């Protein structure tokens, strides 16, 4: 198994790579295009963007220029907060697809649970899914309370919930709920901001395996059955991040990393966010 062949299967049968490239803060144009070319050459088959990242055009251009067949690349984008609501989301989707230059999207996510809007936003995603414009639909940054409320009216369960996830923020309750409801958890900011690399536990485990702290953290995601999308625009790091399928963490090492949890967020709290 390697980055090119490692997939999970979503509740609707769609295959999604365990590891992808996140392009948050990658500048549209040359920077994001080079990052995607490096990732595809390294075997990545999943790219995660969002309308809020303002680089969908570069993502689409890089995919089109690559030698990798479109059907092999899993593309995710997200509807931003200002565009939430039923009609607004449908319009935002069309805009994103125009920028990406794609006919069908692999995964469309509700970026944040905007109060009084995300149910209507979800209804729009269901419409897009039923029309065959999206292969899978999901949410991002949803806590258990948001998911429970969404389930009250949803015709289709979210297939993915993308959340901040790393050893300092293990989100046990959200992951348990998603596991019970067959919602695939996906991690954003899996490497914190890099400050966790100096943690003694992380360093010792990395040394024991002859791996980098980043590789250990990404492997920890996989051990927890969490899809992960580390972001980088550096070719060397993109390749390095992909080399996580040739080793495993022991039960004790996983437990040690789990115990680092501090409920520490680097991003906004979904219950109180203002973006």
Question: What features would you describe in this structure?
Answer:
This is Aldo/keto reductase. Belongs to the aldo/keto reductase family. Keywords: NADP, Oxidoreductase. InterPro entries: AKR, AKR5G, Aldo/ket_reductase_CS, NAD(P)_OxRdtase_dom_sf, NADP_OxRdtase_dom. The protein has 275 residues and is of the alpha/beta class. It has ten helices and ten strands. The chain has helices spanning 30-41, 56-65, 86-100, 118-130, 144-151, 172-180, 200-209, 213-223, 235-242, 251-258, and strands spanning 7-9, 15-17, 21-22, 46-48, 74-79, 107-110, 137-140, 160-164, 184-188, 227-228. Helix 4 links the parallel strand 6 and strand 7 (137-140). The protein is globular, with a radius of gyration of 18 Å. The N and C termini lie far apart (39 Å).
Question: What's the structural blueprint in terms of helices and strands?
Answer:
Elements: E1 7-9, E2 15-17, E3 21-22, H1 30-41, E4 46-48, H2 56-65, E5 74-79, H3 86-100, E6 107-110, H4 118-130, E7 137-140, H5 144-151, E8 160-164, H6 172-180, E9 184-188, H7 200-209, H8 213-223, E10 227-228, H9 235-242, H10 251-258
Parallel strand pairs: 3-4, 4-5, 5-6, 6-7, 7-8, 8-9, 9-10
Antiparallel strand pairs: 1-2
Helix pairs in contact: 1-2, 2-3, 3-4, 7-8
